[in-house]
């Protein structure tokens, strides 16, 4: 229909009816997607072929991650040696019986 002009606004205002679809995954929910873009600020993922522009910023990347400029990709480089160091710091040594009690 015709728009309404408000004094001092300069824009035409129209009444509309629309439906809104919201993408809001649960905290720690795991989704399967395809990386469509990768740059230093983060990555863009297509999820399920329906949500094509899901942006994941760099500060939400799994630690320790870094952006490899040569490849143009984000690389996750976990350090599995940290798990062994944590056991030693706790003072517990594994006694080999599989129960994890150290004794």
Give the SSE map.
Elements lengths: L3 E2 L6 E2 L19 E7 L2 E6 L3 E7 L7 E4 L4 E4 L4 H10 L13
Antiparallel strand pairs: 1-2, 3-4, 4-5, 6-7
Tag the structure with descriptive keywords:
single chain; 103 residues; mainly beta; three-stranded antiparallel β-sheet; two-stranded antiparallel ribbon; 1 helix; 7 strands; 10% helix; elongated
Q: How much strand content do the residues show?
A: 25-35%
Query: What string gives the helices and strands in order?
Result: EEEEEEEH
Q: Level of helix content?
A: under 10%
Major sheet summary line: 3 strands, antiparallel
Gross geometry: elongated
Distance between the amino and carboxyl termini = 80 Å
The structural class is mainly beta
Oligomer: single chain
Can you characterise this structure?
The chain starts with a strand and ends in a 13-residue tail after the last helix. A hairpin with a 6-residue loop joins β1 (4-5) and β2 (12-13). It is mainly β and 103 residues long. The chain has a three-stranded antiparallel β-sheet, with no helix packed on it. 10% of the residues lie in helices and 31% in strands. It contains one helix and seven strands.
